[in-house]
Design brief:
Distance between the termini: 22 Å
Number of domains: 2
Shape: globular
Number of helices: 22
Strand content: under 5%
Order of helices and strands: HHHHHHHHHHHHHHHHHHHHHH
Largest sheet: none
CATH class of the largest domain: Mainly Alpha
CATH topology of the largest domain: Growth Hormone, Chain: A
Mean pLDDT: 85
CATH architecture of the largest domain: Up-down Bundle
Length: 452
Amino acid sequence: MSVPAPAPGPAAPPGQPWKAAAAAWIGSALEYYDFFLYGSAAALVFPKVFFDASDPATATLLSLATFGVAYAARPLGALVLGHVGDRLGRKKIMVFTLMLMGLSTFLIGCLPTRAQVGTLAPVLLVLCRVLQGVSAAGEQASAGSMSLEHAPPHRRGFFTSFTLSGTQGGQLIATLVFIPVAQLPEEQLLSWGWRVPFWLSVAVAVVGWVIRRRLHETPAFARQAADGGVARLPLAVLLREHWADVLRVIAGALIASVSTVFTVWALAYATSDAVGMSRTAMLWVGALANLVALGAIPLWATLSDRIGRRPVYLIGAVGSAVAMTGYLWAISTGSYPLTLLLGVVAFGIVYSAANGVWPAFYGEMFATRVRLSGLAIGTQTGFAVAGFAVTFAAEIAGPGGDDWAAVALFTAALCVPPALAALTARETHRVPTELLGEHATRGASRRERVPA
């Protein structure tokens, strides 16, 4: 017997899909300005400021490990913020995560150095990075859920892609802000110059709060709450009814390894003595790649509204394995024009196919009452592995840090689980919003009716 569709919920105010998309874009841009700013500093500054500069290789390895610490904290943040978001609403999480990120990033800019307080300096750095990770755990899941549930059913891919184009926008802003800082004389860069971009996060938090506090809760969540359908323990419902989709999202989220290797390890490798490219030149590679991604992401997402999430996502996952190999090879040649070209292709175009479609692809796997929990827990668990891909890459690259082929093979291997996850997932781009995730609910209901 078929399950009747839920009754229509309260209508969203006019223009709310665009407002939700704009809030997702701007909030994610501001949030990930903070998050990715740390990546540039971890590759170029922190080894000399917070770690033992007399051993550059070990200092760089430890600095890159602190970049991954935030990813390790994200699954815990996802458990807490996912539960709250499915119980109390998407808007509250969106405001909270932005304020927490702004505060923790500002505090990083105020930290004493190793020369001033010894080993306490890296300890304080790690604590601030953990707070950044907790904040990021709820950001994309809440923004993605908000924009998906406000979007017209036939354009969910396009509207949810604003979350990820905002992420790329934040990465672009962080890179552009860091470029003039990186050009400072070494003494000024290491004493005060690196702190300025972190202090700017105060403005980030204020602007984001003004934008997000005016956003309405989604009709889907309002309907769920009005019908008494809000889960008391979203995690229990999620693991009972959607466990297979959670595993798919975890595997799919490993695609973020492409971003972390591109953003952090490749930057450190290109500016090392083994290659010798300038800091500013390599920062421009990231800036231009992210600029191209701002246009590519909504185009890929719009294509997914027409032909489906799976084929577009697979283009990004499989293509990234090949494109990143080409990019790392280009760096090894020392040719900057070739590095710039292949960097833009790999990260700006190819990776954007998977990056732009995953908010809709993953979000459509879950029912409304567990969507934020499913997105947060699934993505942040996978992202935790992706975050430490940088540390693993530094180890795989060998004592000289120049075995780019081994890192390329490692990055390609991490693209395999996302491809398999997409191949086993359902195509959902034509499923009505109110029926998303119903397959799992019906399956659980049938199992519950079977006598012991």
